[in-house]
Every structure is written in C-alpha cells, then in structure tokens.
Write a structure and sequence with these properties.
Phosphorylase Kinase, domain 1; Aminoglycoside 3'-phosphotransferase, Chain: A, domain 2; 2 domains; two-stranded antiparallel ribbon; 9 helices
C-alpha cells in the first residue's frame, strides 16, 4: 500500500488555484489506497480528499462524476465532487486524471450495530428510488454475463466438488436471470461493503468509493449489502441486522413481486460474484501492487449457507 504518485505541496497549492476552496494548509498521503493515489488536503476553508486515478478505464470517469453529482443533488450522503471555477470537476494533475471531494465525517464500521444497519438501509432505499431516473449508463462489469465468461478461468484451481458447485450454480442463475423477466434497473454502487461507508457514531456520514458504480439490477446492489452487513462469522444471516437493514430499505423502496421471487437466488449469485472475483485475484490476475488479497473462502462459506439454509423471510411491506 502506498501513494503511487507523490505530490509536492507546491503542486497541490497550484492545483487548488483552479477552485474556490481556499489555500493549502496541510497535505497528507493516505497509505490505505489499493488502486489509486489518495491525499487528505486541508485548506483554510475546507477538508478535502484528492484522488489521482492510476489505472482502470479513464473514459468511464465522467459516468462516476455525473452519478455523484446527481446523487448529491438529491441530498444523498455521497461526496459530490468539487467543481472548479469553470464548473468542471474532472481535472488532470501530474499527468493523471484527478478529482477533489469533500472529506466526509466518520469511520468504517467493523461490526455494524442495528442503528447503523437501519441508517444504511434507509440511505440505500432512498438512493435506489432516485437512481432509477439517472440517465447515465455503464454496463454492470460483474453481472451474470461476466460470471459465465470468467468462471472457467478458476476451475482448474478448485477441487472437483467446488468445480461442480460453481458450474451448477451458474447454470441455475442463467436459467433464472437470463430470461425476459427484467428486474427494476437503476444506477447502483456495486460494492457497498462496510468499508465503503463512514459512520460518526450511529449517523451515516457518507457512502464512498463509487468506482464499481454501474447500471444494473437494484436487487443485485441490495444483495451485496445484505451478504456483507448481515452475515455472521459462519456465513449465516443475523435475523436482527437483516431485518433492521431491509425494514428500513423497504420503507423507501418496496420490492416488486418478481424481486421477492428472485431474492434468494440473488443472494447466492452475489456471493458467487465475490467468491469468483477473489479467486481470480489469488490465482489468475494478481493486483498491480503489493496487497494482501481478500480471502475467497469467506464468500464460498456465505454461498454454501445460502444454499443449505436458504434466506430469511423478507420483512413485510411497510406502509409507513
């Protein structure tokens, strides 16, 4: 973990001249970056986060800017990018695409409590309600079509039992999701784990890191959240956290009958999505920088729990 592109105080001070946000007071490199270079920037008027994009598809950055602008305009707790004096957010610094964001309050919840689950469910329900009307488009890079194409690359590294598990599951998803029954679509976060949120006590300070953001099934986004936020160490679902999160979400956006029908299998498919992506990092596509890969076993365990135990009943539709 490192700052991949060092910057001097002078470089950043000159960069800040493009904006109406004050003069540089302090610059601090953030060591926890995994793909991009991040600095905390303090001016005499604001606390900010400066991100330089080191890899990925730079032509997709306008989608993320437009999505964050849109969500911020709808008062969602996201870091709307700072625009310069000409109204432009996406910049260039040290030869890299650069964005400047307000620094949001709080820290990542390692073991979210029920109040935090309710706050996140409420915010995600609000986000999905408005994101259905966002006109930008980016295909989901980790959807069923990706699963179909990518899973063959890891089969040789798996036991015969796990090979069969993966292949059988993906066949099942294809039968359920590849037909004509379209689930509600919208802009989604695509990776809303606990470490992509900030909490100040029980108050949600912000939802961050939208770089997996895309257009896709809203249910896909919700299932990723529930698998991370409401799973215990053994992969089983915590009834209390499950109901707190989903109860708050459903008050903002009730699920359709088709979504309720597909919910158990969507939990399984999103568990598979992370089992596969983590296997790929371990065996096929190691990260560009020295990092400790996430353990694929976590999501294999969650997948097996969803298969063996099913899912919990969804909270009843709320009219409040």
């Amino acid at each position: 973990m490192a700052v991949f592109t060092p910057l001097s105080d002078t470089q950043v001070a000159d960069f800040l001249e493009r904006f109406d946000i004050g003069r540089l007071v302090a610059l601090e490199g953030v060591a926890s970056g995994t793909e991009n270079t991040t600095f905390f920037v303090t001016t005499d008027r604001a606390s900010l986060v400066l991100t330089l994009f080191e890899q990925g598809e730079h032509d997709e950055l306008p989608f993320f800017v437009e999505l964050l602008d849109y969500l911020a305009e709808h008062r969602l707790p996201v870091p709307g990018p700072v625009h310069d004096r000409q109204g432009i957010a996406l910049q260039s610094l040290a030869g890299k695409p650069a964005l400047l964001f307000p620094r949001l309050p709080g820290r990542h919840p390692k073991a979210p409590n029920l109040a935090q689950c309710r706050a996140l469910g409420d915010a995600l329900g609000r986000m999905h309600s408005v994101s259905q009307h966002f006109t930008g488009h980016r295909p989901n890079p980790r959807d069923l079509h990706w699963l179909l194409a990518a899973h063959h690359r890891v089969l040789v590294y798996l036991s015969p039992q796990d090979q069969a598990l993966m292949s059988d599951e993906i066949d099942l998803y294809q039968g359920a999701f590849d037909g004509g029954d379209t689930l509600p679509q919208g802009a989604i976060h695509g990776d809303l784990f606990r470490d992509n949120t900030l909490f100040d006590g029980d108050t949600l300070g912000g939802i961050i890191d939208f770089y997996n953001g895309c257009t896709g099934d809203l249910l896909f986004d919700l299932a990723i959240v529930v698998n991370d936020w409401a799973s215990d160490a053994d992969g089983s679902l915590s009834r209390e956290r499950h109901d707190a999160l989903l109860g708050a979400y459903l008050k903002r956006r009730p699920l359709t009958e088709s979504e309720r029908e597909h919910w158990p299998l969507m939990l399984r498919m999103t568990a598979m999505r992370y089992w596969l992506s983590r296997l790929l990092v371990v065996y096929v596509d190691p990260p560009a920088h020295e990092l400790t890969p996430h353990d694929p076993e976590r999501f294999r365990t969650i997948l097996l729990q969803r298969i063996e135990q099913g899912t919990l009943a969804l909270p009843t539709r709320s009219h409040s």
